[in-house]
Amino acid sequence: MSLKTAIRPTMFTYRAVHFHRQFFKLNLFKRLCSSNSDNGKGPSDNESKKSLNKADLFIPNRIKKRIEQKGLSLDDVEIYRGEKTSASSPDFLNTQSFPEDFSSTTTEPSDYQFPSEFDKYRQERRRQEKHAYRPTSIDPEDTSILFFPGQGSQFVGMGKKLLKYPGVEEIYHRASSILGYDLLNVCINGPKETLDKTLFCQPAVVVTSLAAIEKLREENPKALEHVVGSAGFSVGEITALAASEMISFDDAIQLVKFRAEAMQVASDKAAGGMLTVICNHKTKLKTAMVAAKEYCRTKLGIEDPTCSIANFLCLNVKVVAGDDAALTFLEQYGKEFDIVRMKRLPVSGAFHTDMMRQGIEGSREGKRFKKMFWNLQLNKPKFPVHRNYDGKIIQADEHLQQKEVNMLLKQYRTPVKWEQTLHILYTRPKETGFPRTYEVGPGKQLGVLLKNVNNLAYQGYKNVEV
Question: 9, 37, 180, 260: least buried by Cβ within 10 Å?
Answer without folding.
Answer: 180
